[in-house]
## 1
Amino acid sequence: MSADNQKRLAAERALTFVTSGMKLGLGTGSTAAHFVAGLGERVRKGHLDVVGVPTSEATHKLAVQHGVPLTTLDETPELDLTVDGADELDGSLRLVKGGGGALLREKIVAAASARMVVIADASKVVERLGAFPLPIEVIPFGQRATAIAIDKAARKLGLDPVLHLRMGAADAPFRTDSGNLIYDCDLSAIPDPEALADALSGIPGVVEHGLFIGLCSAAVIAGADEIRVMGKD
Ligand SMILES: O=C(CO)[C@H](O)[C@H](O)COP(=O)(O)O
C-alpha cells in the first residue's frame, strides 16, 4: 500500500473521533488534507455539523473547496480537537512538525485544543527524533544573528547543528503565512527534546520551533497491514 493510502486510512480513522457540535483545529499537509476532504464529505452529506479553524492559508483554501464551515481562533478561542500530521513522532508522542512551514499556527491551534490527535503513515514513527531537520521559524529582522544563537544553543547541548535557510520559489527565501523565515536545523538526532525546546524558546528572534511536546494525546498510525492508535483512543 502506498504511503498516501496509509495517510488516507489514518485520516479516515481519525474522523471517528469527530462528533457533531465539535470545534476543530484543521492541520496542514498531505495527511491533514485527507482529513479535511473526509470531513467535508460528511458535512455535505449532513452526517456532521462542525466548525474548523485552519492552521494555514493552504488548509483554509482546501476547507472552503470541500465545504467545511470555518471560524477563526479569535471567534472561537477554545477548540475540542485538532487533527494534524507530523514529520516525526516518538513513543512518548513528542513530535517534529513544520515540514510544510505551518508550525506556528499549528502549535497555537493545538495548544488551544482540548485534544490533539496526530495522523500519519508508519514511516513517521521513530525511536528517536531528529533525522528530519527541525524547522525553526524566525523573525526576518536580524535572522543571521538568530541563526548564530540557535547554533550556539544547540552546541551547548552537545549537538552538531547544520542550519539551512529554507528557500521558496524563484530563489527567494520561503515565507511563512505570518511573513517569517524558516531555518531547517539538521541535528541527526535529538537526544533530549525538552532541553532543546527550552533552549530554542529562550532565543530572541525565534518565533517558534517544530518540537511539539506535551501537546499530542494520541496518534493514528496506518501501516501496510494495520491501523494502530498510540496514546489515548
Ligand atoms: O507539520 C506539518 C506542516 O507544517 C505537516 O503536518 C507535516 O509536514 C507532515 O506533512 P505530511 O502529512 O504531508 O507528511
## 2
Amino acid sequence: MRVAFVGKGGSGKTTLSALFARYTARQGGPVVAVDADINQHLGMVLGVEEDGLPRPMGSHLAEIKEWLRGDNPRITSAAAMVKTTPPGRGSRLLNLDPADDPVHARFSAVTPEGPRLMVTGPFNEEDLGVACYHSKVGAVELYLNHLVDGHGEHVVVDMTAGADSFASGLFTRFDMTFLVAEPTRQGVGVYRQYREYAADYDVPIAVVGNKVQGPGDVAFLREHIGDDLLVCLEHSAAVRAMEQGRPFTLEDLEPANADALGVLLKHVDSQEKDWERFGRQTVEFHLRNARAWANRAVGEDLAAQVDPDFVFGPTRVSLQR
Ligand SMILES: Nc1ncnc2c1ncn2[C@@H]1O[C@H](COP(=O)(O)OP(=O)(O)OP(=O)(O)O)[C@@H](O)[C@H]1O
C-alpha cells in the first residue's frame, strides 16, 4: 500500500511519516519511506546520520529513467507482478525487494528500525521555482508509476507542506493520504482546502490530529473535521526529547501514541486496494509511453493515422497476487 502524509508546514508530517514507517516495519513486511518534502528531515527522524543518507533521486532522474526504460521487462518478484506488453521498447517494473532491482539498490539506505529510506535530495534556492521542484519530485512520481507494491508491503511518502503537494500528479498516487492537522484554525483550514482537491480527484484521505493536549483539542478537531478525523496523537515528550538529540526507539513512545500508529496501519490495511483504478493508472502510463515511442519512431502524423484500438487493444494487464 502507498501512504502519503500531507498538511500544514510544521504540523508533524515528517515526524508521523517516520513513526508510522518504523511502526509498520516492526509488524514485518518491507517498508520504504520516501522524503519528498522540501525540508529534508525524514532521514534524521528515522535515525540516519548525514553520511548514511542514500543517493538523492531528484538529481539522478536521467539515470533512473534510463534503467526504467530497459529493453526487456524483467519481473522477478513472484509476490507481485504486472504483465504488460507495450509495443516498442520495454518498460521495467519495480518491486520492493532491493535484491531484485537497481533502483532500490542504488537509491535507498537501511535505517536502524528497518524501513529503507529514499530521498529526493535537498532543494536549493534555485530549485524552488515550480519547474525545478517538480523535476525533483517527478523522480518520486516516476518511481511510484513503475512500482508494484504487493500485499503487506508499504511505501510511506513525506510530502511537502501546503499547496505544492497537490500541484503534481504525485498526490493521486496513494491508496491513503493522511492529512496531519494540529488543533488550530489554520490546521483545520488546510483540511478544508485538501478535502476539495481530494474529492475532485477521488483521492482517499483521513485526518490525523497531532500534538493534541487534552479533550478540548480533540473536541475542536472533531467539531471541524467530523468523521474524517481518524485518530489523534498527543503532544509527545519522547518526540521532543528525540528532537533534542536523545536516542529514540519506538519503545520510548507513549503507549497512547503507539496505539494511534496502530490505528493508522489498521486503517491503511483495511482499505481494499482499488486494483481497478491502480490497473487503469498503470495501463494509461504505459500507453502514454507507447504513444510517445510511436510518435518518435514514425512521426506524429503517421502515428495519428493509426487506430489506437488496433495498436493498443491487445495490451492486456493482469494483476496477480
Ligand atoms: N506529537 C508530537 N509531539 C511533540 N512534538 C511534535 C509532535 N509531532 C511533531 N512534533 C514536533 O513539531 C515540529 C515540526 O514537526 P515536523 O518537522 O514533523 O513537521 P512537518 O510538518 O514535517 O514540517 P515541515 O513542513 O517543515 O516539513 C518538530 O519539532 C517535531 O519534533
